Amino acid sequence: MTFEEVLIQKPAERAQCAGKALEEVLVTAQDNGALTVGVYECAKVMNLDPDSVSFCVLAMDEDFQCDIALQIHFTLIQSFCFDNDISIVRVSDMQRLAELVGDKKEQLEDTHCVLITNPADGSWEDPALEKLHLFCEESRSLSDWVPEISLPER
Known about the structure:
- The chain starts with a helix and ends in a 5-residue tail after the last strand.
- It has 5 helices and 5 strands.
- Residues about 1-10 have low confidence and may be disordered.
- The protein has a 5-stranded mixed sheet with strand order 1-4-2-3-5, sandwiched between helices.
- Helix 1 packs across helix 5.
- It is α/β, with parallel strands linked by helices.
- The longest helix is centred in the N-terminal third of the chain and has 29 residues, at about 5-30.
């Protein structure tokens, strides 16, 4: 394997590990009641208690390019995250994200934004969340401000 092939493969491996870590964090956060789902619900949490937000996931779908309001919301959410040092990633498989964060009994209508929050007592720590923070930090050092992660298939 040439040096160039190693360089090309490494970001893909990094993104794949980040995808597994994101899936693990979302499931754990769901179990701990540390998820907020939906653009408007996330905006409320960010406005009321920005210090409780640990991580942000933005999900894009085929309607994103046509929905100007959603694009504006994403821009505002990204700006808020940058201003408050909140790690942020983008996923393109909104259906898979909905499977991970949704209630099995009901279909979620808005999974464009998902926040992972810290409990007030600070008792919840997750090594996978630390991996995601490191992934975002490395991505920012490469001028990739909102890296895209692919969630693993079931």
